[in-house]
Design brief:
Mean pLDDT: 91
Number of helices: 3
Number of strands: 3
Structural class: alpha+beta
Largest sheet: 3 strands, antiparallel
Strand order of the largest sheet: 2-1-3
Low-confidence stretches: none
Length: 113
Amino acid sequence: MSEPSRLELLHFTRRVVVQQATAALRQIDGWIAVEERREAERRRGEERRPPPPEWWIERGLNRGNLVAVHRGDCWDVGKRRVPATREQAVDALRQQVPACSVCRPDSALGFLE
């Protein structure tokens, strides 16, 4: 058998490169499809998420004492919190529950003494 010519080797090399590139593109397309699904799920989750409450009341460790009143968008509210209506937040402030010093719900509620 004779050795393959330079042209035959180049054609062979091209076929190998095309085969490898096709396999790599299939893999990348799979990654893209997975990422598109994740992004769609994230968007659906955000759309279905209920809006945050307008006000929070933060409770203490024993859940009986109230620690602070917060606005719904406050970043400083603790984990022991319950959503509250405007009336509940005003009532808590009237009962001497402190207003958060970060979000100042007393100002937003017009409750300044």
